[in-house]
Design brief:
The structure is a homodimer.
Chain A: E1 4-11, E2 14-21, E3 24-28, E4 30-34, H1 45-50, E5 56-58, H2 60-65, H3 69-74, H4 78-82, E6 88-90, H5 94-100, H6 111-116, E7 140-141, E8 146-149, E9 156-159, H7 161-171, E10 175-177, H8 189-213, E11 225-230, H9 236-247, E12 253-256, H10 262-275, E13 282-284, H11 290-298, E14 303-305, H12 308-314, E15 317-318, E16 325-326, H13 351-355, H14 358-366, H15 370-396, H16 400-411
Parallel strand pairs in A: 4-5, 4-14, 5-6, 6-10, 10-11, 11-12, 12-13, 13-14
Antiparallel strand pairs in A: 1-2, 2-3, 7-8, 8-9, 15-16
Chain lengths: 414, 414
């Protein structure tokens, strides 16, 4: 079988596992590197691999609009098209339809993005495509699907669960997500409930279309794995109901979607994962910042993705064991030491820190050189990917709590 | 001795040689890759090396302004600062002082740049810094040197021959250039003459300062080599006089500077090289386009540098054996073949062409992804660097004329 998930070690809700895909193995918990438009911004796939990334997630909404899912298909599917030989994922397109279509309004986004990234950051080097920005209400929802206008040219488009599946079959990632409705965190309870019920009906239609139409290998096994998405906002009853219903469907894995308040995110993840079937992987969508991984993993999440590491990198914000530094700060102009520390608190061993000084990287940012984004992205992704790997190791070594305490104490400067 | 130049094969004015520097050997004729601000735009040094580049040239004017030559010095010198282990060069700063200082006016620049690059190209991704643009007359020349205003913030600065040498000693490239005055091609003969005489006096002062102040190795040998620059515009008598005077000074090599009309550039190079001492390397500054290498090499030039390959790359203009293509052209959207041909007319073997389709690169440009610039720059530099290597081989094989005819016939589509 092309897909399997095995839990190697457990500790409460936590698990360290192995996810087998047609394009390679992912050791979980893992950070999924985001390559929105079939490229991890500013990096070659070789650079992505060499910093330790195991899997890349691209964005259905963006690839559908540009270059078009049929072009990705005709280019051999996502991995071949972008020259990434490892495992791949796509998201459902739901989050972007609603956030770029302004169902969210201009100030709402995934909490990890909202919390971490200055508004201006997304505009760095013309790269404003992923963020929520000021649009008219361009997304219109009905029972059957969503009509929306393109963020590129305003042209009209429509996604239904079946269409999202068709597009994601064309893009051809190893793993992908059912089509869901992503509600605003400010929406009233009644609307959250209604939207969740619709998401459940859409999940069923997604699964149905997928099972009938997915490309199968010589043994008749599906070549792509479909994950269902649990919604329900911050409401305990809705989240538990959603976990029960989505968890009861025959998905290959699960996504936990929606927007969270940071303080109750881990609680929500815990409610959901106590109900989801244990033997399948769980992806906490659009999360996170360094501290989020501990809370998410402790509450049973296996996979994470977030644009923050690369987006922050492009503004010169670099992760270190003692928190983030901004390389644009004047003090780095003449700093010939290495740039930052790794998640273990020692001198970082990434390509960037091993070969360049803080003064050089600071110069590249001041000079507005593209290589600044490349070097900073390598560092930030290396930090995040390896932080999650270290958390995984701490689970295997039964030292999660010690590592969590040690890391967070340093990271928050206490 | 850290520096030596040996001619391996001659044919008329042409030569194939070996230039030994403290950081490695350069087989000449060679294309010198431009890394204006201590970075080859959009590429890591490993990418630069793997496409076949032998040497990188950075820009004294830009590094003096940002991050400052003392920071480059304190960072271990140019090569160490930018993590390029091979040979390095800096230009004198003269060309930028005069062109960015608008002594040239807004329409003058090196012919290879003017001929090859659409005006808009230089503005691609905020990278307008190297090109001549609209400034007030910010450079003021006197016998002792030039006062000019910074292109970054308008602050006042002054270069003299001694100051240019001091700055270039700080930057610490293996090879660098005497300070010269670069005149407008539209300047009258009398002014060209006057400027040339001044350049000769500045050459003497540059050489004098260098010999007294250059850092020497354990054997007392200079660790940096200084090249004098021949000027004289398009005038035969001035060019010959300049070659005689500069050629008579004890430089380690020579630059041929100034702006040319394309049609008489090769003639000028021939005049000069018939007079310059044969045993030292000659650098045709700021040139060129594919066709320029044949004319330059045939007339005795050994080294070339030009921003055109990377600047064109950032606009999606790619070299091929049959001329340039623009990957933004609609026909490439669904073209799943490899991108371009190499200088030999066969399928290009560069990293980009070996791993990506035209459709993918076209997508990256449309999506305004940084990786577009990286992949296109790798291809264009690979093409140019290897074209010059093939010309070198044709000299060794005594097949220069055949190769020239074959290449140019294809390239110009005749």
């Amino acid at each position: 079988m092309p897909f399997s998930f095995k839990i190697e070690k457990k500790g409460g809700r936590m698990r360290a596992g192995t996810l087998v895909t047609p394009h390679g193995i992912i050791q979980t918990p893992a950070f999924v590197t985001v390559g929105t438009k079939a490229t991890v911004k500013a990096l070659t796939p070789e650079q992505v691999a060499s910093l330790g990334a195991q899997v890349v997630l691209a964005n259905t909404y963006h690839l559908y609009l540009e270059p078009g899912d049929e072009i990705v298909r005709d280019g051999g599917g996502l991995g071949k098209f972008m020259n990434w030989p490892g495992p791949t994922m796509t998201d459902s397109g739901g989050f972007q339809v609603f956030s770029l279509g302004a169902a969210f309004g201009k100030n709402a986004s995934k909490i990890a993005e909202r919390g971490a990234v200055p508004e201006a950051a997304a505009g760095f080097r013309g790269d404003s495509d992923e963020k929520s920005s000021v649009h008219e209400a361009l997304a219109k929802i009905d029972e059957d699907g969503v009509s929306f206008k393109s963020v590129i040219d305003g042209s009209p488009h429509r996604f239904t669960p079946e269409r999202s599946m068709e597009i994601q079959h064309n893009i051809g990632a190893d793993m992908f997500f059912a089509f869901d409705e992503c509600t605003s965190p400010h929406a009233p309870y009644e609307y959250q409930h209604e939207a969740m019920d619709r998401t459940h009906r859409w999940a069923e239609r997604s699964l149905d279309y997928h099972q009938k139409n997915v490309k199968r290998d010589g043994d008749g096994m599906p070549t792509q794995a479909l994950f269902g998405i649990v919604q329900g906002g911050r409401h305990e009853d809705l989240r538990k109901e959603s976990a029960k219903i989505i968890g009861g469907m025959n998905f290959d894995g699960f996504g936990i979607g929606g927007s969270f308040d940071k303080e109750d995110m881990y609680t929500v993840v815990g409610w959901v994962n106590d109900i989801l079937p244990e033997g399948k992987p769980r992806h906490l969508l659009g999360i996170g910042e360094p501290e989020d991984f501990f809370g998410g993993i402790e509450n049973g999440a296996d996979l994470f993705d977030c644009v923050a590491p690369t987006r922050l990198a492009r503004t010169g914000n670099l992760y270190g064991a003692h928190g983030r530094i901004n390389i644009n700060n004047a003090k780095f102009k003449k700093d010939f030491d290495s740039i930052a520390t790794g998640p273990d608190g020692k001198k970082c061993v990434c390509y960037t820190c091993a070969n360049y000084t803080a003064a050089y990287l600071s110069h590249l940012f001041r000079a507005n050189e593209m290589e600044a984004a490349t070097l900073a992205s390598i560092h930030n992704l290396h930090f995040i990917v390896n932080l999650v790997k270290m958390i995984r190791q701490s689970i295997l070594d039964e030292k999660f709590q010690e590592f969590k305490k040690e890391f967070l104490t340093k990271y928050h400067g206490k």
